Amino acid sequence: MDATDMGSDLKEVLISAEDMDRRLEELAAEIDRDYAGKEILLVGVLRGAVMVMADLSRKLHSPLQMDWMAVSSYGSGTKSSGVVRILKDLDQDVNGRHVLIVEDIIDSGLTLSWLQKNLLTRGAASVEIATAMRKPRAAKVDVDVAYVGFEIPDEFVVGYGLDYAEKYRHLPFVGTLAPHVYQ
Length: 183
Ligand code: IMP
Ligand code: MG
Hints:
It is a single chain. This protein is α/β, with parallel strands linked by helices. It has one domain (17-152): 3-Layer(aba) Sandwich (Rossmann fold). 26% of the residues lie in helices and 34% in strands. It is built from five helices and nine strands. The chain has helices spanning 3-6, 17-34, 50-59, 110-121, 179-182; strands spanning 10-15, 40-46, 64-74, 80-88, 98-106, 126-134, 147-151, 157-158, 174-177. The chain has a six-stranded mixed β-sheet. Strands 1-9-8 form a three-stranded antiparallel β-sheet. Strand 3 and strand 4 form a beta hairpin. Helix 2 (17-34) crosses helix 3 (50-59). It starts with a helix and ends with a helix.
């Protein structure tokens, strides 16, 4: 999918595919330094984090395993409900593992602050967070995010794994939607 396929639904490109790739390269280098001598359990949060998980993991040199969780805090709309439900739990035991949660975007931060605590209570040795994007609202929540790709404005974005009503996930860049799409 590209900008042409989006037609008038696309307002603007916020992060190009090239910029995302470059930034993930930097984050991967940082992560490799920080986890030297350790094995990482990457935990991708379905479904939005699929792209960043695929791209970030392939840039890492550290030994790692991957697992996935599906949680839900959003309906089909553009507002967080604040209620986190586990739709799919991890297959692996996190006890004693160095967990790095991989996220697409942090908005309210509710999903992640809940998830981080949840994994720590299961006995993980450490639980850090890597996110491709973060919105300003996230700063107000008590969640420590070790790796942030881009700080973005408080706008609803799509692409690079992120959807609006399950559409636009396969857009290679991150963009904003024209108001007519969700009005
Ligand atoms: P939070 O709990 O408010 O931080 O939001 C968590 C999840 O909501 C993210 O992992 C995304 O899946 C989704 N989300 C938040 N902001 C956006 C957006 O701008 N576009 C699409 N999905 C979003
Ligand atoms: Mg997500």
